[in-house]
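User: Can you predict the 3D structure of AAA family ATPase? Sequence below.
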Amino acid sequence: MMDLRAELPSNQQITDLGQAAEHIRAASRIVVIGISGAGKSTLSQKIAAGFGLPYVSFDRDIFWLPGWTERPKPEQRKIVTKLVAGERWLMDGSNPSSFDLRLPRTDIVIWMRIARLVCIWSVIKRWIRYFGSTRPEMAPGCAERVDWEFIRFIWTYEEKFAPRLIAGIAEHGPDVPVLQLKSRRQMRELLDLLRRPA
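Assistant: Sure. Here are the predicted structure tokens for AAA family ATPase:
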């Protein structure tokens, strides 16, 4: 099958996981982006805990209000502006509308670009696990849900949404190194490298 993924310039990509681990160890501010169900929150929380970085969930802390109500954009930007002024943080969230605030302050971007079928399966498992309740990375009062619109969003993510992320990175973080993780195996390998003594 042909890979239709849009790509970043090769000089911005980190392709060696050992080199990526060194960047992450030295980083004070990290942005993790990617498709729903890719494992952003899992990876983010492990890295944040391992390196003592305050963890910010875009869904929980910025984007959503209770009852799946989107926080007004001016309020979102006010919160992001305050958070990115901090000296140390890890921010988990893909929304490109705040790239102009986040990327100039970011030491490295980790982009979870996992296969869409894997992500859909992960989202369904997550829905079953948290059925009727709210997962920890989500705003209070936003019970876990899955519908066809959400599945369609995941299925068409690479074609419709990834080019916007690439354009945003090019505009607001052209010198920021980007690690793309394209499988669960790569994610596990990266975490194993990060657990080893420096």
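The two ends are 39 Å apart (CA to CA). The longest strand covers residues 29-34.
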